[in-house]
Amino acid sequence: MYKKPQDIISDILNEDIGINIDRGPTGVNIVTEPEERDIDIKIQGDKDIHFSDPGIGIRIVNPNERTTTFEMNIRKALNGDLLVFDHADIDIVLMVEKKKIVAFPKDLMSEVVYGAESRLMEWMRKNGIIEYDSIQGGNVYGSLEGKIHESKERDSIKSTIYQLSEWIKSEAPSSKLKKGHDDMMQDAQLQPDEENHTELGEVPHAEEKGSILQHNLFAPYLYGRYTY
């Protein structure tokens, strides 16, 4: 019985090493794991064997890659600078063109404001965002600035924004505690409890109040024969 050379080769590959060559979409179907053996294949005549392209796509997954999502109160200036208003004591400006980060007092300059600016620059310095020797006072009173590193591997602006969000997140507990203390003091003054307040008219009016005597030889304001 005559067989084509293609069929003979297909039978040999199928019987000896478990490779079935068919006309499916992939062209090659591995049936079983082949055993280790030496096989000599001779092709006589002008015949060619063609393996069809299966068209398999490869997706390389990086295990170190991750997606981070965060929210910030940021506005964009006309020149492209980014303005961050999330902190309670300072405003932060990210100068995109000049590659600088500048912190300004939100209201008045104080020790609390300078402490927040100093913690921000120290955070950025330790995380490799700004240069060590670039931290200095800005040209605006009470401001502090630092120069952002140049990077060829990562986007320096995106890295700075991410570290800003992490620093603001670390400041959230102390800011919340400070706000709670301010609210408590305000409530103590405007809405005191029963022990620390009296209704209007509950304490009757008297001619003299307190421990300072107004009509005495040793009155606080003595001028000649008259006391005030």
Plain-language structure description:
Among the domains are: 1-34, no CATH class; 74-181, Gyrase A, domain 2, CATH 3.30.1360. Residues 23-34 have low confidence and may be disordered. It has helices at residues 5-16, 111-126, 156-190; strands at residues 19-21, 28-30, 74-76, 82-84, 90-95, 100-105, 136-137, 144-147, 222-223, 226-227. Strand 7 and strand 8 form a beta hairpin. With 228 residues, it is an alpha+beta fold. The strands form 3 sheets. Strands 3-4-5-6-8-7 form a 6-stranded antiparallel β-sheet, with helices on one face. Strands 1-2 form a two-stranded antiparallel sheet. It is elongated, with a radius of gyration of 41 Å. It has 3 helices and 10 strands; from the N terminus they run αββββββαββαββ.
Q: Low-confidence parts lasting 5 or more residues at pLDDT below 50?
A: 23-34
Describe the sheet with the most strands: 6 strands, antiparallel
Radius of gyration: 41 Å
The count of β-strands is: 10
Beta content: 5-15%
CATH class of the domain at 74-181 equals Alpha Beta
User: End-to-end span in angstroms?
Assistant: 140 Å
CATH architecture of the domain at 74-181: 2-Layer Sandwich
* Strand order in the largest sheet: 3-4-5-6-8-7
* Structural class by SSE content: alpha+beta
Please state the overall shape, judged from the principal axes of the Cα atoms. Answer: elongated
Helices and strands, in N-to-C order?
Answer: HEEEEEEHEEHEE
Using the coordinates shown, work out and report the CATH topology of the domain at 74-181.
Gyrase A, domain 2
Averaged pLDDT: 78
Counting H and I runs of at least 4 residues, what is the number of helices?
A: 3
